[in-house]
Amino acid sequence: MNAIADITPDITPDIQARIIDAFNFRHATKVFDPERKVDARAFETILEAARLSPTSFGHEPFKVLVIQTPEKRELLRDFSWGANGMMSGTTGQLGTASHFGIILASTAETMTAGSDYLVDHYRTVKQLPEEVIEIFNGAYGRFQTTDHGITTDREIADWAGKQAYIVLANMMTTAALMGIDSCPIEGFDMALTTQTLGRDFGIDTGKWKPAVMCAFGYRAKDPEFPKTRRAMADTVSWF
Ligand SMILES: Cc1cc2nc3c(=O)[nH]c(=O)nc-3n(C[C@H](O)[C@H](O)[C@H](O)COP(=O)(O)O)c2cc1C
Q1: What 3-state class would DSSP assign to 54?
Q2: Which pLDDT band, with edges at 50, 70 and 90, does 143 fall under?
Q3: For 124-133, what is each residue's pLDDT tens digit?
Q4: What is the pLDDT of residues 205-220, one digit of tens each?
Q5: Which listed residue, 12, 198, 217, 229, has the most CB atoms within 10 A of its CB?
């Protein structure tokens, strides 16, 4: 018996198989069937997985933009080489996905310890009493300055971006469990995407920067190549 089965005897082989099947099913889908749309309830489930994702300190330093109108998607095409089909000779994920998202990460303006934004988040979202807010301010301040050395604008936005990638993973796994395909996308020009979000999407780019994009839908065809991964022994070390 393996270690996971040892500590979780209630998890049936059936559930384990469904989880592993979902991870094998998920692949980075380059072209979706443009005729097949993800139904609204299924997509709400994917968004709920995003919303319920864990984040460091519970700061939720992310936001998901869902971009559905072709006109808005086209604004991203020129500089989104990982989603515009240039490598497959198609209209890519931007042209074919049922749902297309950009996950934004918070910037230093809101994610610096003691910011008005964070204090308000502790009060109104986390509903912490004032004395606990003091403790959070202190602990997060030390985390930023001492523990992890996250103090520059870039470092703070990158830290928020890490949280955004947890959201991304949860959205893709949730989709895969429902038989929905997806593609994570970081093939885009950061500066031009930020500029476009500010100018054409009304995003306050002082507070938010793009972290990663994601597309959802149903594959146009099965992947050409089987999934390859390192062996478990090269991936995990036990001590
Ligand atoms: C953060 C991230 C960014 C990625 N960016 C792109 C991208 O811009 N375009 C694309 O087609 N695939 C992209 N991929 C897909 C990877 O190339 C793919 O996940 C990897 O080769 C493993 O293949 P699989 O996902 O099909 O198992 C990205 C994957 C991740 C995790």
Answers
A1: coil
A2: very high
A3: 999 999 999 9
A4: 999 999 999 999 999 9
A5: 217
The secondary structure of the chain in percent helix, strand, coil, rounded to multiples of 5, reads 50, 15, 40
On the CB side of 239, CA atoms within 13 Å amount to 0
Indicate the DSSP class of residue 221.
S
Question: Is the CB–ligand 1 distance for residue 28 below 6 Å?
Answer: yes
Query: pLDDT by residue (tens digit) across 5-53?
Result: 555 667 788 999 999 999 999 999 999 999 999 999 999 999 999 999 9
Question: In this structure, is residue 8 part of a structural domain?
Answer: no
Number of structural domains, the chain?
1
**Across 58-62, average pLDDT:** 98
- Burial level of 175, CB count in 10 A (0-12/13-18/19+)? buried
- Separation of CA 76 and ligand 1 centre (Å): 18
Rounded CA-CA distance 41/194 in Å is 30
The answer to whether position 1 is within a domain reads: no
| Residue of 96, 107, 115 whose CA lies nearest to 215 | 96
21 within domain boundaries: no
**Any domain includes 15:** no
To test the ligand 1 pocket, which listed residue (183, 214, 216, 230) has its Cβ within 8 A of the most ligand atoms? 183
Q: How far apart are CA 77 and CA 187, in angstroms?
A: 11
* CATH label of the domain that carries residue 69: 3.40.109.10
Q: Which domain holds residue 167?
A: 31-223
